[in-house]
Write a structure and sequence with these properties.
The structure is a homodimer.
Chain A: H1 7-19, H2 29-36, H3 40-52, E1 56-58, E2 64-66, H4 68-90, H5 100-106, H6 112-121, E3 146-148, E4 157-163, H7 168-176, E5 184-190, E6 197-201, E7 206-209, H8 211-214, E8 217-223
Bound molecules: manganese (II) ion (4 copies).
Residues 81, 85, 100, 103 of chain A line the site of one manganese (II) ion.
Chain A binds a DNA duplex through residues 6, 8, 28-30, 38-46, 49, 60-61.
GO molecular function (chains A, B): DNA binding; DNA-binding transcription factor activity; protein dimerization activity; transition metal ion binding
InterPro entries (chains A, B): DtxR_MntR_Metal-Reg (IPR050536), Fe-transptr_FeoA-like (IPR007167), Fe_dep_repressor (IPR001367), Fe_dep_repressor_sf (IPR036421), FeoA_core_dom (IPR038157), HTH_DTXR (IPR022687), Iron_dep_repressor (IPR022689), Transcriptional_repressor_C (IPR008988)
Organism (chains A, B): Ekhidna lutea
Chain lengths: 225, 225
Amino acid sequence: MISELSFTEENYLKAIFHLSSEGTETVNTNSLAESMSTTPASVNDMVKRLAQKKLIGYQKYKGATLLPKGKKVALTIIRKHRLWEVFLVEKLEFKWDEVHEIAEQLEHIKSPTLIKKLDKFLGFPTMDPHGDPIPDEDGVMKASIRASISDVNINSRGIVVAVNNDDTLLLQHLDSIGIKLGSRIHVIDRMEFDGSVSVTIDDGKKQFISKPVAENLMITITDTK
Amino acid sequence: MISELSFTEENYLKAIFHLSSEGTETVNTNSLAESMSTTPASVNDMVKRLAQKKLIGYQKYKGATLLPKGKKVALTIIRKHRLWEVFLVEKLEFKWDEVHEIAEQLEHIKSPTLIKKLDKFLGFPTMDPHGDPIPDEDGVMKASIRASISDVNINSRGIVVAVNNDDTLLLQHLDSIGIKLGSRIHVIDRMEFDGSVSVTIDDGKKQFISKPVAENLMITITDTK
DNA sequence: ATTTATTTTTAGATTAATCTAACTATTAAT
DNA sequence: ATTAATAGTTAGATTAATCTAAAAATAAAT
Ligand SMILES: [Mn+2]
Ligand SMILES: [Mn+2]
Ligand SMILES: [Mn+2]
Ligand SMILES: [Mn+2]
């Protein structure tokens, strides 16, 4: 039925998904060309093919939107991408920032059984190493909850996904206390008086973080209590 | 330097390797077409490309031979294919006979680091689930030693790779004592008197095998003492 | 409401990989 | 040594994916 898509077609669908805030909005030709590192002319050709296959909706001069079939494909690719990223980090000991390019290749391997078994092997993870949620088999993906550790509930756990400030001194400070993108944070307590937060980093020893630092430290929440 | 080969080019090199008894002999157009499920005309086109890239030697009407560069590529692909097969069987619990098609896809993933880490994760295996040897990083591959369990030394270990007789009764008998392709066999002893052999199957309990059965049971040897 | 700028679409080419049909070389048979 | 059969090559087309350059539509600015 779903005649077997090319890598390129799959990549276009994924790009449309990401550019349209999860497939809700319409995407225009130029931004898609930008995102795919290609020309608007090429995008125009491809958009017509995908429309013919009923994967996207498209009208001249009005942009493209994912149709249900196309959205399902996009979410399957994203699921595979993120599961492979978990595999690369958890099992093969790659670093957080080394896995994306390899996952870009692995996401196109075609075998539903493979993904089922990989999912099981990894213990059915719900989040990739960058804190992004993994869609389930039916293509359902929970929105990830992203917040500063100044705002989350006491006892929340999460993964560092961003630092909202690229001041070198801040980054150096975080580095010195062992916090980097991908670190697991457990928020133990927060002082009313000065807004400082105490956390554990990668389940290690307790660490105090001052309010100005805490406000800039963004995590995606894996667990709240 | 090695400008990045397409999946198709990689598959042609691999096919030439297999058809030329490990890259030693020359391969003719028709058998290559047969093996690639394509036409002689297509093969002819491709053979010219590969010759131009100095991966194979080719003269009109005289067939193709792997050049050192092409042989290296072929062995790298085979290495990746077999390592992925080990992964699928050992880690994801696929069956022996379910992994080839998936490995055909995975073998084209481009990342030397990935293969290094996968190799380590798997404990540096020397043989794939079908008893075929895995080339090392430099493309060196030991010939696999294949023999009937009537012929191997006492205390040899190996993997069942073939049954030299497709008599239903024999196959049913093997099935009933738990021997299938891929089973690990440890040859414990052999009786001079009747040529019967005692073995363990997958490191389980001891099992006697009569001479007529033993003669037909082929293993590739992983260990001899 | 024109003009200008931006975005989008078309037209025409190119490259990899494939095909069919026709032609040529080599090998085997008589 | 011819002839017949097989194997290998070329010519010409096709399809996916891309490109550049030109034209058309839409949006923004005056
Ligand atoms: Mn990624
Ligand atoms: Mn990710
Ligand atoms: Mn295989
Ligand atoms: Mn194998």
